[in-house]
Design goal:
By secondary structure, this protein is α/β, with parallel strands linked by helices. It has one domain (2-14, 25-160). It contains five helices and six strands, in the order βαββααββαβα. The protein has a six-stranded mixed beta sheet with strand order 1-2-6-4-5-3. The longest helix has 11 residues, at 9-19.
């Protein structure tokens, strides 16, 4: 990823508010630490980030082998209407900085990048355009985010039950 600038919690909250007037997956909700506890950066994603990028639990069933990787999203069906609508609208996140996705990670160098917000948008982007290169994102680093219940590890555990 290409790091553009470090930001504070208010910048992320402003972004979240512009996309989700009703709380959805926001830092601080669903058992996540509050944004003030994260190291926050605006970034542009690169192709090498794709292999480390994972979707949330609701999307794992749409990945090959149920591994949860965005790169393993199956192109055929079963997607929520929101993904299909974005594909039909030819959404291209590279041209829409206001639609930046929000990623959480323990560390961006060696740990998975988990799409906390923007799973529908990122899925549509990948299926329609075949790339995440140039996609704007907020990357949010926290040493304990791996214990959040919607991580790919926790998702696989729940699917196995």
């Amino acid at each position: 990823m290409q790091f553009l600038e470090q930001v504070d919690a208010s910048a992320l909250r402003k972004h979240e508010d512009s996309l989700n007037p009703v709380p959805n997956v926001r830092l601080g909700s669903y058992g996540m630490p509050p944004p003030e506890q994260f190291e926050l950066w605006r970034v542009t994603l690169e192709e090498r980030d794709l292999d480390k990028m994972f979707v949330l639990f609701d999307f794992v069933e749409h990945t090959i082998g149920l591994h949860g990787k965005l790169s393993g999203i199956r192109p055929s069906g079963g997607f929520k209407e929101r993904v299909e609508k974005k594909i039909q609208q030819n959404l291209d996140l590279r041209l829409s900085p206001k639609l930046a996705v929000v990623i959480v990670t323990v560390d961006w160098k060696e740990w998975p990048l988990i799409l906390a917000d923007g799973n529908h948008r990122a899925t549509a982007q990948y299926l329609k355009h075949g790339t995440i290169t140039g996609v704007p994102a907020f990357v949010c680093k926290h040493p304990n985010i791996c214990f959040w219940t919607n991580t790919p590890i926790e998702s696989r555990k729940r699917l196995a039950l």
